[in-house]
Amino acid sequence: MTSEVRTVVVPLTRAQKVLAGVGGLFFAGLAGLGGYGSFASVQDVAEPWFGDQAWIVPAGVDLGILALVSVALLLEWLAMPMPALRWMAMAFTGATVWLNVSAAHGDATGMVMHASMPVLFVTFIEAVRHAIRRRAGIAAGTVREGIPVTRWLLAPFSTFRLWRRMVLWQITSYPQALVAEQRRRHALALLDAHYGRKWKSRAPADITWMLRDGVMLDQALDRVTELTTPPPPEPPPEPAPPPKKAAPRKPPARRQVPRQRVPRSVATDNEARALAIIDAEPDITGAELGRRLDISARQGQRLLSRLARPAPSSSTPAP
After folding, report:
1. What span, in angstroms and rounded, lies between the C-alpha atoms of 62 and 40?
2. Do 3 and 170 touch, CB atoms closer than 8 A?
3. How many C-beta atoms lie closer than 10 Å to residue 224's C-beta?
């Protein structure tokens, strides 16, 4: 399980920047005094071999140390540390200390005084390197937080396993590692309750591997939850609906026989008036009949044709 969460680097406050500046000034003063004192001591030691050129040895060593330290700090700041530069600077600083101690000619007090300034210089450089490396590592998400000593004392074996997983899977956050450990133990408890003591032989092999090594815990816990969750109870069967009552059958509708139109035996008012007019004037025209009845000439002609036609006799044989 790789940590993908990067801690946000909090910028320095104004007071912290002021304190860092003051420390830098003190360091510059220490470096100047140490270089001045070391220069004379190393020059005296190197004079039997270099003669008038003996000043080259302390100048070259001190400049080399400053150059190596500066480049090493820059690479640490860029999250690209090069241990060889650091160890080379330490080696040259140790050589400077040895040359200064040799200048005391075996006197313990002189040896301590000659060695004090180079040791302070190295200590300050290591403090600056640690701060730069820490902040650069926090920004890049590569600095691993330490485990509290109290946890090592209270649970040494489980703490060692936790630390081992943090180292193996690059878990840099201690709280995140604790959350992962809690999730892992939760999954183990679910498997133990579901399969019993021999859950390792009964559970799927990939889940056992994930939980043993502490990797892909999100996927492992999801699968464990899926395996150990009992299926939901089946709903009771729904009661059968009551049989539907048959709708009462309607009686067949009676067919309505169209009534035969019976010829009218009694004439309407216009027909009665027309009959009276035709009887009085057999030669009347249809237009005249319509005018007298207040109807159109065409209707009067039809009425005259129908009323003037002789009615069929019952004795006349049908065709």
Report:
1. 12
2. yes
3. 25
Count other Cβ atoms within 10 Å, centred on residue 277. Answer: 17
Q: What whole-number distance in Å separates Cα of residue 164 and Cα of residue 149?
A: 16
Determine if residue 284 is left, alpha or beta; phi over 0 gives left, psi from -120 to 50 gives alpha, anything else beta: beta
**Reported pTM:** 0.48
What residues contact residue 187 under an 8 Å CB cut-off, 6+ apart?
207, 211, 217, 220, 221, 224
For CA atoms 121, 123, 129, 135, give the dihedral sign.
negative
Give the list of residues 6+ apart from residue 45 with CB closer than 8 angstroms, or none.
99, 102, 103
- DSSP per-residue codes, 101-154: HHTTTT-HHHHHHHHHHHHHHHHHHHHHHHHHHHHHHHHHT-PPPPPPHHHHHH
Q: Is 142 exposed, middle or buried (0-12, 13-18, 19+ CB in 10 A)?
A: middle
Q: Angle at the Cα of 293 (from 289 to 299), degrees rounded to 5?
A: 65
CA distance 226 to 151: 33
Evaluate whether 200 touches 209 at the Cβ level (below 8 Å): no
Pairwise CA distance, residues 203 & 195, whole Å = 7
Per-residue pLDDT of the chain (319 residues; tens, 9 = 90+): 444 445 566 777 888 888 888 988 988 888 788 777 778 778 888 888 888 888 888 888 888 888 888 898 888 888 788 888 888 988 888 888 888 788 777 778 878 877 787 788 878 888 888 888 777 766 666 667 889 999 999 999 999 999 999 888 888 888 989 999 999 999 889 888 888 888 888 888 888 888 888 888 888 888 888 888 877 777 777 777 777 666 666 666 555 544 434 344 434 677 777 787 777 777 778 778 778 777 777 777 887 787 776 545 444 444 4
Contact, 85 vs 75, CB < 8 A? yes
Rounded CA-CA distance 139/211 in Å is 30
Alpha carbon distance 210, 223 (integer Å): 11
Alpha carbon distance, N-terminus to C-terminus of the chain:
117
